[in-house]
């Protein structure tokens, strides 16, 4: 029975590396490998974050191009994310101050309307019960009056109006409710219609300033979004550069460990090489191709994908031979478990005989390349085999 050492990740028991003479050295090696694993996990998380950002940014750019955004990408210095947040806070404060001024001017219009001699029915909420208006709430969905509007304009708890158009909408609602509930020829209906016309006339005088402010806010918001996007891209670009440098350092550490392993590898015996050749011949075509890729990694001139491959085991480096040995051991263990599971399944499904024949035909076709590849291995085994005494 072939004897195979433990997997290479268990560095303290690997027969390929002679660490037995120095336990401290083996422990140091394990710690370095563990540190690299931890570092790689963190790098992988950051790489995923960068990939998600650029994937999301690509979709946003596509949507922006379809919508025909008028914002142009300018060549300029991109402030940091923190600077962007500070500027956003200042911009919002300035916009709020300008809106407060518009609301103050709107308040002047509101006072002129409420001081009109016909405004008294609309100054306070409708006394539904006192006037016996039992169907009022069936007709009117949202009651409104000028005292409610004034209270909300003066609110300091954050529940007040944020935009002058919100106040305009509620003023109109006062008159529309009155016109809706009262008949067209009634005094209240006529009073509401007259005051609404006066209000619309004065609102048209303020509207250009409101429109100008809304346009300014839209442009500032678009520019802020662009600057924020550029700042995020700059931050992720820096993260990508840092990742590249850290990945280079990891590669250097891995190269150091590889050199350490190469230096510590003991020479594989002729019998071990023979057993390795036999084990290689037992691999599936796919696994055998992976094994040949291991050979190609240390031998650039080796054609791992050729139809026929001449693999001279004696010509391989010790590190390559041991890598092959560990790969073959793990692969054959998995292959044996799969075969056992497949055998149990076949026993429980005896009616699948025809399907099994088709599978065998496919396997026979796949094994053609395997036999071609293994010809050279068999030659090597034959050369390494000792003559009978």
Compact description:
It contains ten helices and no strands. The chain has helices at residues 23-67, 81-114, 136-139, 146-153, 164-181, 187-264, 270-281, 285-298, 318-348, 353-384.
Q: Could you tell me the radius of gyration in angstroms? A: 41 Å
Indicate the overall shape.
elongated
Q: Roughly what fraction of the amino acids lie in strands?
A: under 5%
Written as H for each helix and E for each strand, in order along the chain, the element string is HHHHHHHHHH
Provide the helix percentage: over 70%
Number of strands: 0
Output the structural class.
mainly alpha
What are the low-pLDDT stretches, counting only 5+ consecutive residues below 50?
1-15, 66-76, 358-389
Overall pLDDT metric: 77
Q: Helical segment tally? A: 10
Distance between the termini: 22 Å
How many strands, what sense, and barrel or not for the largest sheet? Answer: none
List keywords for this structure.
389 residues; mainly alpha; 71% helix; elongated
Show the helix and strand layout.
Layout: H1 23-67, H2 81-114, H3 136-139, H4 146-153, H5 164-181, H6 187-264, H7 270-281, H8 285-298, H9 318-348, H10 353-384
Helix pairs in contact: 1-6, 2-5, 2-6, 5-6, 7-9, 7-10, 8-9
